[in-house]
């Protein structure tokens, strides 16, 4: 009796045509493969026993029934494969896909095949053929006599993909493999969109844009230098007309520009079009996000998107990809009359469940530093920010968030900002951003002022603030001194956290001195790494991805922050995996929040189960977890 062959396990890659207007960046993966221009001209395969490369129409696909394909970007290659099945180019065989790009990213290797191969195997993959093929077709390669070279290029890709798989796959945790698959499928399934409301929102914003443009004096005026109309949102037209009218020109119109804020305070009442220009710049950004969403909504009113697994190398958190990010594409507040979150709307007969881990980072921090008192309070139901206010800020009243919202915001920012080493200047900026800056507008005594000025004199990076302080108004001086007092007070009253900063500072410096990779073990058993640290004039820099060219400055408090955010990510990943294994349909997650889609008739039961899962501690740490869980017909915050 002939023994049945095991299904093939091999690397798999596809080559498709694209051009500047027809690409994933402009259309998203779904829009790209469903476009009329879609054409896959080459498929390649490799393992230890064989290599194969051919046009998809010329492949005996049935031998790959039940196969496992390892793809270096499965979110693309799997979509291409399944699209070819829809077009009946490939028969309806069953194939399992594994993403080796995700696998490499897990180990903080470069996501690109060439980058990972260079680091792991010290092998340089030639780039010439890839660069040459941009905007070209298979026929172009044949006509140029490059078909064999292109075929070999495709074969080389799968050969090295296979080698990476053999080297790393067994070390990639099974939970992370499941999350990789879940992540792809979640983005493909997409978000349900209220398309009619989205269309109305676009029309409303188009009207606002037109009205703003009519108030800009340089619109439709000719630039004498270029003989063309001034760019509507270009600073050249703005500054040309400011000069004509006798106003100072403006270098920066950025949202957080101090220069612009001062200009508006001084001249805004007599020159309104500068504020209009700034508003137009911002509204154009939101409009572009809405338009891109609209262009990608399919016939079923769903918007597909992409998230990079391990998109932030040092924490393993996810990151938006494909030209649109769910992480920053849905502002909390209504912007220019449009509630972008509310456009994510449950279809008929369905409900959305929005669940968010409450104060996960301070809970993880208490566990890491083994703050038994804080942990005990959290297990008893204490809110970490309320607890901090009671223990370190002298609060003796009732619910702080209700009785004194601004002081609650201060307590929260002390935990989340000062807990990660933020200095007084940035803390002052965040106070203004989150609306509690006036809590600093209180008198201070001469002792505090002298202590602050002594600090400025003794710290080289702070000495330039002495002149700023000397010329500041009374209220500005109050804010500066009191912001600094808050920073010093937090550091004095948080010795366990401060000790972690100092420990990282010393150990990171030692690693830089030895030229060793700096490693931080997490509670989950994973280790985050900082490669090739070295001392420079402005501090110690390192690489977050092995083999990367980019170096980033790190220091004790920042390393502590990344270790806590990485721990919070591990907790959240554990929850995502549980939800997925139970068949609960997660359609999006942002930071520590999940959005689930379910049948409306099952919403209450599903919500209860989601809350149970989101408050379940992972096996590697008992944590005092809390999660909000709300059933709604739309996404909200």
Summary?
The protein is an alpha+beta fold and 637 residues long.
Distance between the termini: 63 Å
Q: What is the tally of beta strands?
A: 19
Biggest sheet architecture: 5 strands, mixed
Compute the gyration radius: what is it? 28 Å
Strand order of the largest sheet: 3-2-1-4-5
Query: Number of DSSP helices?
Result: 24
Walk me through this protein's architecture.
- The protein is of the alpha+beta class.
- It is built from 24 helices and 19 strands.
- A five-stranded mixed β-sheet has the order 3-2-1-4-5. A four-stranded antiparallel β-sheet has the order 17-18-12-19. It has a four-stranded antiparallel β-sheet with strand order 13-14-15-16.
- α4 (113-121) crosses α7 and α9 runs antiparallel to α12 (273-296).
- The radius of gyration is 28 Å and the shape is globular.
Task: Give the tags.
637 residues; alpha+beta; 5-stranded mixed β-sheet; 4-stranded antiparallel β-sheet; 24 helices; 47% helix; 15% strand; globular
Which helices and strands appear, and what pairs or packs with what?
Elements: E1 9-16, H1 24-33, E2 40-46, E3 51-54, E4 68-71, H2 74-86, E5 96-99, H3 100-106, H4 113-121, H5 128-132, H6 138-143, H7 147-168, H8 174-189, E6 191-192, H9 195-214, E7 222-223, E8 228-229, H10 235-244, H11 258-267, H12 273-296, E9 302-303, E10 306-312, E11 317-321, E12 350-357, H13 360-368, H14 372-379, H15 384-392, H16 400-403, H17 405-416, H18 424-433, H19 446-458, H20 465-470, H21 474-493, H22 495-514, E13 518-521, E14 527-536, E15 539-543, E16 552-554, H23 556-581, E17 585-590, E18 593-599, H24 603-614, E19 627-632
Parallel strand pairs: 1-4, 4-5
Antiparallel strand pairs: 1-2, 2-3, 6-9, 7-8, 10-11, 12-18, 12-19, 13-14, 14-15, 15-16, 17-18
Helix pairs in contact: 4-7, 8-23, 9-12, 13-23, 15-17, 18-21, 22-23
């Amino acid at each position: 009796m002939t023994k049945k062959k095991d299904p093939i396990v091999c690397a798999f890659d596809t080559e498709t045509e694209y051009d500047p207007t027809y690409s994933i960046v402009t259309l998203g993966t779904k829009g790209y493969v469903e476009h009329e221009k879609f054409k896959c001209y080459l498929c390649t395969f490799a393992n230890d026993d064989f290599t194969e490369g051919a046009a998809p129409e010329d492949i005996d696909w049935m031998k790959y029934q039940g196969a496992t394909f390892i793809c270096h970007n499965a979110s693309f290659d799997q979509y291409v494969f399944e699209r070819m099945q829809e077009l009946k180019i490939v028969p309806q065989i069953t194939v399992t896909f594994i993403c080796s790009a995700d696998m490499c990213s897990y180990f903080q290797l470069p996501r690109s095949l060439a980058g990972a191969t260079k680091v792991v195997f010290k092998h340089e993959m030639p780039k010439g053929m890839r660069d040459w093929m941009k905007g070209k077709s298979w026929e172009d390669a044949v006509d140029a006599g490059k078909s064999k070279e292109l075929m070999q290029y495709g074969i080389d890709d799968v050969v090295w993909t296979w080698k990476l798989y053999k080297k790393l796959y067994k070390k990639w945790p099974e939970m992370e493999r499941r999350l990789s698959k879940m992540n792809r499928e979640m983005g493909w399934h997409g978000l349900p969109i209220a398309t009619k409301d989205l269309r109305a929102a676009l029309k409303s914003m188009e009207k606002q844009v037109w009205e703003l443009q009519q108030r800009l004096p340089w619109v439709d005026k000719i630039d004498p230098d270029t003989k063309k109309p001034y760019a509507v949102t270009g600073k050249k037209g703005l500054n040309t007309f400011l000069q004509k009218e006798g106003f100072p020109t403006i270098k920066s119109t950025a949202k957080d520009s101090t220069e612009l804020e001062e200009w508006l305070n001084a001249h805004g009442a007599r020159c309104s079009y500068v504020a209009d220009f700034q508003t137009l710049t911002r509204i154009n950004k939101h409009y572009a996000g809405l338009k891109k969403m609209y262009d990608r909504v399919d016939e079923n009113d769903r918007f597909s998107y992409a998230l990079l697994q391990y998109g932030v190398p040092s924490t393993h958190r996810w990151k938006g990809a494909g030209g649109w990010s769910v992480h920053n594409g849905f502002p909390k507040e209504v912007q220019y009359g449009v509630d972008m979150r509310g456009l994510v709307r449950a279809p008929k007969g369905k409900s959305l469940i929005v669940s968010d881990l409450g104060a996960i980072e301070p809970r993880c921090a208490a566990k890491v530093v083994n703050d038994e008192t804080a942990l005990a309070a959290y297990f008893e139901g204490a809110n970490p920010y309320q607890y901090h206010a009671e223990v370190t800020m002298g609060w003796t009243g009732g619910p702080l968030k209700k009785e004194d919202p601004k002081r609650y915001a201060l307590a929260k920012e002390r935990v989340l900002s000062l807990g990660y080493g933020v200095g007084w200047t940035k803390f002052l900026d965040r106070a203004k951003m989150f609306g509690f800056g006036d809590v600093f507008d209180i008198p201070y005594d001469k002792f505090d002022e002298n202590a602050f000025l002594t600090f400025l004199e003794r710290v080289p990076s702070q000495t330039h603030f002495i002149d700023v302080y000397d010329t500041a108004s009374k209220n500005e001086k109050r804010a500066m001194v009191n912001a600094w007092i808050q920073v010093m007070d937090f550091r004095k009253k948080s010795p366990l956290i401060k000790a972690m900063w100092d420990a990282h500072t010393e150990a990171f410096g030692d690693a830089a001195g030895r030229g060793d990779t700096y490693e931080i073990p997490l509670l989950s058993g994973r280790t985050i790494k900082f490669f090739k640290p070295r001392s420079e004039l402005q501090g110690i820099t390192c690489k977050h991805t092995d083999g990367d060219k980019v170096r980033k400055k790190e220091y004790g408090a920042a390393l502590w922050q990344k270790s806590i955010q990485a721990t919070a990510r591990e907790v959240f990943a554990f929850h995502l995996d549980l939800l997925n294994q139970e068949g609960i349909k997660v359609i999006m997650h942002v930071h520590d929040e999940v959005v689930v889609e379910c049948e409306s008739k099952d919403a209450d039961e599903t919500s209860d189960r989601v809350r149970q899962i989101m408050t379940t501690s992972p096996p590697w740490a008992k944590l005092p977890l809390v999660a909000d869980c709300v059933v709604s017909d739309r996404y909200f915050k």
